[in-house]
Amino acid sequence: MTKATLFSMTKAILVFLSLIIISSCTEDLKKKKDEILGKSLSDSIATNTEKKDLTPEMTDKENLADLPLLVFNEYGTSYWYAPLGYIPSSQLSGDDFYALSEEKQEAENERGRKEVEAFVRMLKSNKKRYTMVVCAGKRRTIDYVSCNFDKGNEGTLALGRKGSERDEQMQYVCFKSGTGHYDEKYNVGMALPEDYLKTHKLVDCKYYAFQEGDKYADKQMTKDAKREIEKRTGKKVRKARLNGEADGGKYRYYTVFFTDNGKKAFAMQAVTTPDGVVLGEMEQTIYDEYGDAQWAVDMEGDYPGMSIVMAEEYNGNLRLWYVDTAPEHTNCGTFTVKGNKLIKREYYGFYVMVD
Question: In the chain, what are the helix, strand and coil shares in percent, each to the nearest 5?
């Protein structure tokens, strides 16, 4: 046996032993996390595993037992459906995720899976704690009716299906309000657990359907606000679409579109406040061969509808619960006004079943 061969064998053995040690440590950590989650489903869950990569505001913990549910009113009835489609917290974009090693990608995936499992366990245990729906600025009492956790698909919205056909497509929790139903325009709301309002203060808000806000001339973004955005982004504002407002118009939420060169389209979420403009992250997409921006499937170049379904004060900050709608998707999350930043957290995401 040559020295080179002996050296290679020794190196391989050392690498193998290192992997065993790492695997053992990782498994111990996973077991410890499982013990914590199993002990109390209402315990807070950290939003990311690598604290050093996070901005300070995103290291907050989330209490899953207090999480509002996105609910849809079955038109013409008093039933409200909360489909399952929880999105685990993460601060990694697609590019950032794929830049990780395979081991770190798997660790991130595993963290996400466990967070989703914790949410589902919470919902199974606490489904009867949801006692109120907030919709279009109004509150209505609800009672738990039924659930479907065993059939169907998580992350699927199939409200157009009925009975057993719906159960085969969608996992959900069903509630019923004792005071009738809303019209078709206001068929989306947030279901709140009991005692939620002891720690969260609801703020009045107005919901605008897709492009509905454009018709209110007195509520359009001011020239001063546009100039501030242009100064901070270095881009020319083409249009600001009003999506909703809160606290009597003190806060107005817009999607801002910028002029471009016809190759990439740019947009940004913004909230005007008494102190100025709060901005989210710059978004971009490409144009297709027909000149349509590819913001979402079947939108023919339009940006998805962004509406505010609930506004609240929490931990001293204004938080806007939004719904992002397009023909084949519905997403829901929050925009938190924090300093001069608009912090986005997406909580639910669904593929819409197309008949």
Answer: 30, 40, 30
